[in-house]
# Entry
Amino acid sequence: MLQIAPSLLSADFSNLTGEIAAVSNGDMLHLDIMDGHFVPNISFGLPIVECVRRMTGLLLDVHLMIANPLKYAEAFAWAGADLICFHLEAQPDPRPVLRAIRACGKMAGMALKPATPVQRLEPYLEELDMVLIMAVEPGFGGQRFQPGALPKIQAVRRMADSRKPDLWIQVDGGIVPETAASCVQAGADVLVAGTYIFRSPSPAQAISQLRLLQPR
Ligand code: DX5
Ligand code: ZN
# Structure
């Protein structure tokens, strides 16, 4: 099933209650955590995740763009994350982070920047619930989709088909209906969209629009 993950980064933070209610037909809420080290931007942290947890029953998909995911994974689990996704580039040995996430009973995801080859996640595939392929450099919403993400999605889908058929493949960055269609065709089944959904006159309709796409 195709899942749609509105990215709160593009929401109006002066009206989080209304913005979260407006995307309640999404499948999960994507929360971008940026520390100003791993990426050249700072977004929001634990207190906001805790508030969002109280505002929605949607699955909370926390995308950690931080330099030390091992140090903070447990705190985000306590704050209410359901799925914790960290960057392979931030963690030379990702196994301790995966263990920490599992120990909290949460789902684990691994994210790759545009320049990171998918072969680097091969050793961990069986231990992951989700792989996140970035279609933009992490750090900012509203960037243009990089088509180099498509062969990476295809490659992860091929790996998953033989070794981990229930793996979710998420794509993040520059998602609008046209780029979303190419991603779904390549094998993605979770679409993150910030600008397209939250800057649309009707976020709920924007979600329904993306939902019309058929996963492979
Ligand atoms: C970027 C974030 C994205 C961002 C996507 O580093 O990881 O989740 O919110 O925004 P759009 O959909 O505007 O490209
Ligand atoms: Zn993200």
Notes: The helical segments are 16-22, 46-55, 69-79, 95-103, 149-163, 177-186, 195-198, 203-211.
